[in-house]
Write a structure and sequence with these properties.
- The chain has 454 residues and is α/β, with parallel strands linked by helices.
- It folds into two domains: 92 residues, Arc Repressor Mutant, subunit A (Orthogonal Bundle); 278 residues, tm_1862 like domain (pyruvate-formate lyase- activating enzyme).
- The protein has a seven-stranded parallel β-sheet with strand order 9-8-7-6-5-2-10. A four-stranded antiparallel β-sheet has the order 1-13-12-11, covered by helices on one side.
- Helix 3 runs parallel beside helix 4, helix 3 packs across helix 12 and helix 8 packs parallel to helix 10.
- The longest helix has 20 residues.
- The mean pLDDT is 93.
Length: 454
């Protein structure tokens, strides 16, 4: 099929634009099937989680949900940075790690990667982050070459000595939020970072022996094709080790209110489609990998192994854990999270046991986000079923759209399927919901109590 024809089909039939787009990041989420877990049931549930952890290596996620300001594009709804509240949260988080150890969750396991997410993890001091890492390493062995990543606001890395200290305590990868270098757009988003600032942080990190990623966005309020082109030119000069380009997911009530007052700032469907095409072409041409085309774990180990279905044990409020058969969330409210921990229980708020059918969908959803795709033989061995039969209708449609293909014993994304990987993933999640009930509606993967939709 000709490239222009494929792109026209994707734009018409698959591309979500902004209003109903979900930033998957990158897993299956079926919120209607979650069940509430009472604190008294946590002990029994943890035993089931342990039984489902058949792998020797796991991923450890640490949620530090605090920020200095709330950017209008943010969909994680962090708490305002506050020294006392953060100290109390840190104590609870350390106690949670000790509870996981005492319940045997880490027994016989190694941590392949550790990821500090937020919020802004670097709103905590280096000594706080070291304390967390020391507590984790005292609870679970680290695999050789363990990737230890922290998200960071560039503002918190202005001192190169801090960056060197981060490397000294074990952090070997940083992911900084930049989103765009267009100062007018950043101002509309309640965000400040400059080209000079980002360039300096990247250089200082690389000089310290830290791999560094820059998060970028398309579809921000008032963004233009010209400003995106300028962003790409700047990135070419800075040359970070990794870049991730994602679309703005409109779920923050602050930006929704702003758009309602200034609808002219919303990026139209056709322009946003062009932005995605241009940035993904640039990513591919410059050797940057992200969801849809990971070949190995060099650029982003945590994400790569997640896509290979390595279990995730997540620590902190609202954090989500996955095994191959179970998914569960911690309580979102900090007070509830801490109170349950003080009583000596794990603060698990809700859970879902994935049915065999849902496990198949999850295997497909994650597998196709790797360059090699989902291995058909491994799927057959695991589920005693042929994925080409299980997903016949879905595969037929996405193949007709020019997004999915069968190649070298795998189901994988085509070039343009990888460019629009999140739209493909949204389509798969919608297929799951339709199978469950035609009335179910996809919600943001980052769904929280205050999220909304345009």
């Amino acid at each position: 099929m000709e490239e222009n024809k494929i792109l026209n089909i994707i734009k018409k039939e698959l591309f979500h634009g902004q209003a109903d787009y979900t930033k998957n990041q990158p897993d299956l989420f079926i919120p209607h099937r979650f069940k509430i877990l009472a604190p008294s049931q946590a002990g029994r549930f943890v035993e089931e989680v342990k039984a489902s952890l058949i792998e020797k290596e796991i991923l450890v996620y640490v949620h530090l949900p605090f920020c200095f300001t709330e950017c209008l594009f943010c969909n994680s709804f962090p708490h305002k940075a506050d020294e006392k509240i953060q100290k109390d949260y840190l104590n609870s988080l350390l106690k949670e790690i000790e509870l996981l150890k005492s319940r045997g969750v880490f027994e016989g396991k190694k941590a392949k990667c550790i990821y500090f997410g937020g919020g802004t993890p670097t709103s905590f001091s280096n000594s706080d982050l070291k304390l967390i890492l020391d507590t984790i390493s005292a609870s679970i062995d680290l695999s050789d070459g363990c990737s230890i990543n922290s998200e960071a606001h560039p503002f918190t890395l202005s001192d190169r000595n801090r960056i060197r200290e981060l490397r000294a305590i074990g952090i070997n990868r940083l992911s900084i939020g930049c989103q765009t270098f267009d100062q007018q757009v950043l101002q509309l988003c309640n965000r400040k970072n400059s080209e000079v600032q980002i360039e300096r942080v990247v250089k200082d990190a690389q000089d310290a022996g830290i791999s560094i990623n820059i998060d970028m966005m398309t579809g921000l309020p008032g963004q233009t094709m010209e400003s995106v082109k300028r962003d790409l030119e700047i990135l070419e000069g800075i040359r970070p080790d990794a870049v991730e380009y994602i679309r703005h997911e409109i779920v923050n009530p602050l930006i929704i209110s702003h758009y309602k007052n200034h609808p002219e700032l919303i990026i139209d469907h056709a322009t946003l489609f062009q932005m995605v095409c241009m940035t993904q072409e640039w990513m591919s041409a410059n050797g940057y990998e992200q969801n849809g085309r990971f070949t190995d774990d060099k650029q982003w180990g945590y994400r790569y192994h997640w896509l290979k279905e390595m279990p995730i044990i997540a620590i902190g409020s609202r954090a989500r854990s996955y095994t191959r058969t179970i998914c569960y969330d911690k309580h979102e409210e900090l007070s509830v999270y801490s109170n349950i921990i003080r009583k000596g229980e794990l603060p698990i708020g809700r859970y879902i046991y994935l049915t065999p059918r849902e496990q198949m969908y999850r295997s497909l959803l994650l597998g196709i986000q790797l360059k090699k795709g989902m291995d058909i033989r491994l799927f057959r061995d695991r589920f005693s079923a042929d994925p080409l039969d299980v997903f016949a209708s879905l595969f037929s449609t996405l193949s007709a759209y020019g997004c999915l293909q069968q190649e070298a014993g795998a189901i994988n994304l085509t070039k343009y399927g990888a460019y629009f990987v999140e739209d493909v993933c949204d389509y798969i999640i919608d297929a799951v919901l339709k199978e469950e009930s035609g009335a179910l509606i996809r919600t943001p993967h980052s769904e929280g109590k205050i999220s909304s939709r345009l």
